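Z., the sequence and structure:
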Amino acid sequence: MIHEFDYMGALRRNWPIVAVALALAFVATIFITARQTPVYEASAQLVATPSPAIADPDDVVRALETLERRTIVATFARMASTEESRNAVAQSLRLDPRRAREFRTAGSVVPNTNIIRIDTRGPDPKLAASIANAAAGRTAREAETLYRVFSLRFLAQATPPRGPVHPDRRRNFLVGAALGLFFGVAAALARERLR
């Protein structure tokens, strides 16, 4: 005669195994999270507009039509992440090249707008904000040099973030708890089957 396996009974009888697995997962998560280097992200925003130096209304309309095509704004956004831009920003902030390499800067266009986000990620929140602002300022100057009919102005300056974007402690603990529960339940059921 085949007996149905009593899963709930097995878990009730072997609950200490589940509890130990959860505790071990919790301790491991704390250890792994503490060893991860915090990464902070700061963002500056620029808005692309026709240059105030344009006097002819027809030229302003043509400039706006060009901005609608998005290729110009995408070009401006790309400028912030070039090697030349990174080196110029590091030099302007008097950063040691090794220290500067700890930070990553990238530009992106906010969907359906002429707004450019300059994001900088790195281990120091204040320095990440300084680099983002310097990169945004340099992008604005370079854009105006290349395309005199457009102007980039600050919409929002980067400020030091309050907390890191990595590691995500909440996510780490949820994953750790899920893994601990999974292995605890699996071990409890395996022990019951071996009895």
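The chain is about 55% helix and 15% strand. Helices lie at 7-13, 15-35, 57-68, 71-79, 83-92, 97-100, 125-146, 169-194.

Let me know what you think.
H.
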